């Protein structure tokens, strides 16, 4: 362990940790043929979720402009 501190480079995550952030390193594979726009009824259903409501409203407004 001590030898690695001397010979290897390392990333200091202190700033991100103090800001309350987390680093998550994962691969996410998406089938491009499965990506599509949501239907209006799907958007309405998702807008009932508090965490998504403002985001979806902003995106719908941006698309309509």
UniProtKB/TrEMBL annotation:
GO-annotated molecular function: mechanosensitive monoatomic ion channel activity
Highest taxon listed in the record's lineage: Bacteria
GO-annotated cellular components: plasma membrane
Gene Ontology biological-process entries: cellular response to osmotic stress
InterPro entries per the UniProt record, alphabetical: YbdG
Protein name per the record: Miniconductance mechanosensitive channel
């Amino acid at each position: 362990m001590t030898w690695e501190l001397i010979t290897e480079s390392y990333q200091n995550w202190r700033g991100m940790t103090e800001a309350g952030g987390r680093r998550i390193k994962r691969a996410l594979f998406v089938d491009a043929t499965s990506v599509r726009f949501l239907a209006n009824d799907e958007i309405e259903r998702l807008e009932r979720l508090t965490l998504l409501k403002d985001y979806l409203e902003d995106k719908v407004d941006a698309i309509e402009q």
